[in-house]
Amino acid sequence: QRAQKYKNVGNVYFKMGQYDEAITQYDKAIEICPKEKLNDLAIFYQNRAAANEQLKKYSSVKADCTKALELNSRYIKALLRRARVLEQSGDLEAALKDLISACIHDDFSNNTFLAKTYEICHNLVEQQAYENLANKEFVLPSKYAIEIYIATYLLMERLCEARHDFEKAVECNSNFGLAYLQTCYMDFSFADDNMNLRLVKVAVKKLERAFKKFLNPPEIIFCSTLYADVHHHQNFQKVDACLVKTIQKYPEYAYVYETRGLLQFKHGSVNKAIECFNKAIELDYKCEVAYKELAKIEMQMYVSSVIVLF
């Protein structure tokens, strides 16, 4: 009872903005509270943390919240307050862990908690990316990635002119594989943008005919990865089998492993995706997409491991 009275007086001082006086009252409540009253003690420590936060004594806030959580590990107020202080001090990983714990104990029912968790997660990934890039030696992308980028840039900037030129190139030389495949890609993009299912199927069939027409790199590599891009939603197994066949025939092309890794990840096969991304990096250390996807997977696994703990 006496401890509760000190706490209540402390709360009055807190509401009046007299935080030092509030802390004095919370100190007295903590001092005389029976040690077996774990929940009461946790509240007193958390209240003192709130007063210390107003005074910007962040190390004391962290210490009091930690003590409160030792007494009551499900104390959401203490978790959120400590997360806030940890974020201010730059320890985003620890802040994220506290926020995830708060969401779990609240059954993921509070949208504000969830939004803050997402924000911290995003900032943590960004922070780690900056830290890694600061010490990263600049290297050019792989030769094949550059070729694909240039081709895609052309399509994006001047689609009509590019389509006409590629079709003209195919008319002049029906064996000009990359030009033919670019027309396949443009046909699919046009059909997909206009949500024309019939034309989508026509474009996919045209691309499938290319497998019989162009059997060697780089055409077959571009054909396989393009097929995965345009058809994976309709027939995952067929597309994956196509990529496996290409890998078996041309195992030295990192880009195919990278494409298969993306496909496996999208369809929930995380272990296979990791295997493909690692193989792509082994073949070509410039596979930046593989690095980025591995980072995403690692973050998801970290969040899942924290959830499992609770």
Topology:
Blueprint: H1 2-15, H2 19-32, H3 38-54, H4 58-71, H5 76-89, H6 92-105, H7 111-134, H8 143-157, H9 159-172, H10 177-193, H11 197-213, H12 219-231, H13 236-249, H14 254-266, H15 270-283, H16 288-308
Helix pairs in contact: 1-2, 1-3, 2-3, 3-4, 3-5, 4-5, 5-6, 6-7, 8-9, 9-10, 10-11, 10-12, 11-12, 12-13, 12-14, 13-14, 14-15, 15-16
Annotated CATH topology of the largest domain: Serine Threonine Protein Phosphatase 5, Tetratricopeptide repeat
Percent strand equals under 5%
Instruction: Evaluate the radius of gyration.
Output: 29 Å
The ordered H/E elements are HHHHHHHHHHHHHHHH
GO biological process, one term: protein insertion into mitochondrial inner membrane
Pfam families: TPR_1, TPR_8
Family: Belongs to the Tom70 family.
InterPro entries: TPR-like_helical_dom_sf (IPR011990), TPR_rpt (IPR019734)
Overview of this structure, please?
With 310 residues, this protein is an all-alpha fold. It folds into 3 domains: 1-135, Serine Threonine Protein Phosphatase 5, Tetratricopeptide repeat (Alpha Horseshoe), CATH 1.25.40.10; 158-212, no CATH class; 215-309, Serine Threonine Protein Phosphatase 5, Tetratricopeptide repeat, CATH 1.25.40.10. The protein is 80% helix and 0% strand. It contains 16 helices and no strands. Helix 3 (38-54) packs antiparallel against helix 4. The longest helix has 24 residues, at 111-134. The radius of gyration is 29 Å and the shape is elongated. The mean pLDDT is 82. It is a single-pass membrane protein. One of its GO terms (biological process) is protein insertion into mitochondrial inner membrane. GO terms for molecular function: mitochondrion targeting sequence binding; protein transmembrane transporter activity. It is found in: Mitochondrion outer membrane. TPR repeats lie at residues 3-36, 254-287.
